[in-house]
Specification:
Elements: E1 2-3, E2 7-11, E3 15-19, E4 26-32, E5 35-39, E6 44-47, E7 51-55, E8 61-65, H1 68-72
Antiparallel strand pairs: 1-2, 2-5, 3-4, 4-7, 5-6, 7-8
């Protein structure tokens, strides 16, 4: 379980990226496997590979398909 001030990520996979900086959107991107993202109001979404969830500082949830290579390129 990855816990942040914006929400939690329950890891059920092996490759993902989390961005949780103060006053910015809380972004979780799944590369492979499966995981659940839980916001401060205990709303839950399950990500599939290639998806990103975003929780705004106002606690609004959104989810979209993304190019994971662009988001995780910092690891290279």
């Amino acid at each position: 379980m990855v816990k942040t001030g914006y929400g939690n990520v329950e890891v059920m996979g092996t490759s993902f990226d989390v961005k949780a900086y103060p006053d910015e959107n809380f972004e979780t991107t799944l590369v492979e496997g499966s995981l659940k993202v839980i916001n401060r109001m205990n709303q839950v979404t399950t990500l599939k590979p290639g998806q990103q969830s975003v929780i705004t500082p106002a606690n609004l949830f959104s989810m979209s398909d993304v190019n994971t290579n662009m988001i995780t390129s910092w690891m290279e």
